[in-house]
UniProtKB/TrEMBL annotation:
GO terms for cellular component: membrane. This is Ammonia monooxygenase. NCBIfam families: Gneg_AbrB_dup (TIGR03082). The keyword RNA-binding does not apply. The keyword Cytoplasm does not apply. GO terms for molecular function: monooxygenase activity. Keywords: Membrane, Monooxygenase, Oxidoreductase, Transmembrane, Transmembrane helix. InterPro entries: AbrB_dup, AbrB_fam. It comes from the Bacteria. One of its GO terms (biological process) is regulation of gene expression. It comes from Neisseria weaveri. PANTHER family: REGULATOR ABRB-RELATED (PTHR38457:SF1). The chain crosses the membrane at residues 31-52, 59-77, 83-104, 142-160, 181-203, 256-281, 313-336.
Length: 348
């Protein structure tokens, strides 16, 4: 299909203004939040805004690549020391999904299997794909996860800004900051290649985890090709925010009002439980409470790790917690669905 670039100019102009406006207003993560809110607002109002083809994948590649550069040998050793707490984070993520499932099933009047995939705090695309495989209502799953991501990406950064959580983990930011344009091109090619490998193997979140793996392995081996220039990081955030916002159509809030209302309450409860669990964990570890809060927050991998990066809050720790969360939730999603089929067949 021929691409008509003029169709995307309105969207690019709108989200660029949103990013610059958010930066001028002093918002947290302005290059993600500004485009996201502008894109979502225009989409809900019926303006035919379209995201760039492969824009989301490009944005995720930039973010994954940027995050991988934090995994120096000393940081990997530090993460190994926190392995037990990451295991606790995996269990906590699954429990949040179970709590959400009961709430959505009980109050939103959807079947139990759809409630599970709508509530499991894995990636939105992964949960939607698995919902289709296991016979759940994909449209309701997508709606619930879209609202969850929007709420968390909006609430958490503004709360952190209000509380003054910034720069509390500067010790983990000792990374290469020299941009080498030839090395950067080679780094990008390596990240794209591993992203395609993940996609070919049908592994979870290939355009985040593939580039993350490539950059992480190079950094762990002390091969420092280049840092990621700030303008490229901003562009990646803009593309992700733009793509996320276009998921909201004019009928989004009318499509399943009860489900969306219950989901909103579940998200608020989940954030409260996350705060309590993070605070308790901070008392027995040397990880700061704000870093744990981002690492355990039931938001998207890219969005929460971008927040950690911008606010200087333990990027490798936050990233590792979210990678573990994705493994736990995606790995158990099918098992829970089969359990529902066996134990509660009438709720299929």
């Amino acid at each position: 299909m021929k691409i008509r670039w003029a169709d995307y100019m309105l969207g690019l102009a709108a989200v660029s203004v949103g990013a610059l406006g958010a930066e001028w207003l002093g918002w947290p993560i302005p290059w993600l939040l500004g485009p996201l809110l502008v894109s979502a607002g225009l989409s809900v109002c019926g303006v035919g805004i379209r995201a760039l083809p492969f824009g989301r994948q490009a944005g995720l590649t930039v973010i994954g690549m940027s995050l991988g550069l934090y995994f120096t040998p000393p940081m990997i050793a530090l993460l190994w020391d926190h392995a037990l707490w990451m295991l606790g984070g995996m269990v906590f993520a699954v429990l949040l999904g179970v709590i959400g499932t009961y709430s959505v099933y009980r109050f939103a009047r959807v079947d139990l299997k759809t409630a599970w995939f709508a509530s499991a705090v894995g990636g939105a695309s992964e949960m939607a794909y698995l919902a289709g495989q296991y016979g759940a209502r994909v449209d309701k799953v997508v709606a619930a996860h879209s609202l969850r991501v929007l709420m968390i990406v909006t609430i958490v950064p503004f709360f952190y800004q209000f509380m003054g959580y910034h720069g509390l983990d500067d010790s983990v930011l000792q990374i290469n900051r020299t941009v080498n344009w030839g090395g950067l091109l080679l780094l990008i090619l390596c990240c794209i290649a591993v992203g395609w490998l993940f996609l070919w193997q049908n592994w979870s979140n290939p355009w985040t985890f593939g580039p993350l793996t490539a950059a992480m392995l190079l950094t762990a081996a002390e091969i420092h090709l280049s840092a990621v220039p700030e303008v490229l990081s901003h562009a990646g955030q803009l593309l992700i925010g733009w793509a996320l916002g276009t998921k909201f159509g004019p009928d989004f809030f009318r499509s399943a009002p009860r489900l969306l209302a219950v989901t909103a309450v579940v998200v608020i409860i989940g954030l409260g439980l996350t705060a309590l669990f993070s605070y308790g964990l901070s008392l027995v570890t040397d990880i700061p409470f704000p870093t744990l809060g981002l690492g355990l927050a039931p938001g998207g991998v890219a969005e929460m790790t971008v927040t950690a990066k911008v606010l200087h809050l333990g990027v490798p720790v936050v990233t590792a917690f979210h990678v573990c969360r994705m493994i736990a939730v995606v790995g158990t999603a099918g098992w829970f669905s089969r359990l529902i089929e066996r134990k509660w067949p009438e709720q299929r």
